[in-house]
Design a protein that fits this description.
Elements (H helix, E strand, L loop, with lengths): L4 E4 L8 H21 L3 H15 L2 H9 L3 H8 L14 H7 L3 E5 L4 H11 L7 E3 L12 H11 L6 E5 L2 H10 L2 E5 L11 E3 L8 H9 L8
Parallel strand pairs: 1-2, 1-4, 2-3, 4-5, 5-6
C-alpha cells in the first residue's frame, strides 16, 4: 500500500472528551430520556447505559425501541458544548499534517458538534471529510453498515485504511472488514483484533510508525 487512508475517531481519540464533555453529555442524555420516556433518573441512567452496551450507541436503542427522532435527540443532548470544554493537544495539527495519505474523521457524534470540536482544536481543515452519525444514516459504530457507507464515500477499500479509535467494539468491526487498527488506550492488554496500541494520539509522531504506514502492510506493536 502506498499511502493509507487514516480514519480518526473524534471523542477520546483526537481530544479528551472524558475530561469535561462526556460527564455533561451523559447527564444531558439521561435527562432527555427522563423527560421523553417519563422515567426517574436511576431508570433513565440504566436504560442509557444498557443501550450503549448492547448497540454501541444510546441513540440506536432509543430509535429502535422508542421511535425517538434522532435529529431532536442529537440537538438536545449536544447543545451544551462550549469552547473551553475542549481539551487542547499541543502539536496535534502538526502531527496530523505530517502523516502521509488521506485523512478523515469518523464519529458517532452529530456533524455540528464534530465540526465545532475540530474547529476549536484548529484541525478542521486537516480532513477531507467528517463522517458523522448522520452520514451513516444513524447506523453508528460499531455497525458494519456505517463503515460500509464510509468506504463508499471515500471510494477506497478497507485494506487501504488505518483506523484510530478508543472503542474496541468499533475496532473489532474495522478489523473484520480488513482495516489496520490502532487502539488509543492506556490499558496494557491488547485484543487480538488490535494491530497497535498507543497511549494517546500524539504518539503517532513516532518515525517508525510513519515508515511502517508508508511501506509495509502491518504496523509494529510498540505497546
Amino acid at each position: 500500500m502506498a499511502h493509507p487512508v487514516w480514519i480518526f475517531d473524534l471523542d477520546d481519540t483526537l481530544h479528551d472528551a472524558s475530561a469535561q464533555i462526556f460527564p455533561v453529555m451523559n447527564q444531558a442524555m439521561t435527562h432527555y430520556i427522563m423527560h421523553t420516556l417519563g422515567l426517574d433518573e436511576a431508570n433513565a441512567h440504566g436504560l442509557r447505559q444498557h443501550y450503549w452496551r448492547v448497540y454501541g450507541a444510546t441513540l440506536k436503542g432509543l430509535m429502535r425501541h422508542h421511535h425517538i427522532d434522532p435529529h431532536h435527540f442529537l440537538a438536545q443532548t449536544h447543545a451544551f458544548l462550549t469552547d473551553d470544554m475542549v481539551v487542547q493537544h499541543k502539536r496535534l495539527r502538526q502531527m496530523i499534517q505530517a502523516l502521509p495519505g488521506r485523512k478523515c474523521v469518523f464519529t458517532n457524534a452529530p456533524r455540528q458538534y464534530a465540526l465545532k470540536v475540530l474547529s476549536v482544536l484548529g484541525i478542521a481543515d486537516c480532513f477531507e471529510c467528517v463522517f458523522s452519525v448522520e452520514s451513516t444514516r444513524f447506523h453508528a459504530k460499531p455497525s458494519v453498515r456505517g463503515f460500509q457507507r464510509l468506504l463508499r464515500q471515500l471510494k477506497c477499500r478497507a485494506q487501504d485504511c488505518i483506523m484510530l479509535e478508543d472503542s474496541v467494539s468499533a475496532l473489532m468491526t474495522a478489523k473484520r472488514l480488513g482495516m489496520r487498527t490502532v487502539w488509543i488506550s492506556r490499558r496494557l492488554h491488547k485484543p487480538i483484533y488490535v494491530d497497535y496500541r498507543l497511549p494517546h494520539v500524539l504518539a503517532l509522531t513516532h518515525s517508525a510508525l510513519k515508515k511502517a504506514a508508508r511501506h509495509t502492510p502491518a504496523i509494529p506493536d510498540y505497546s
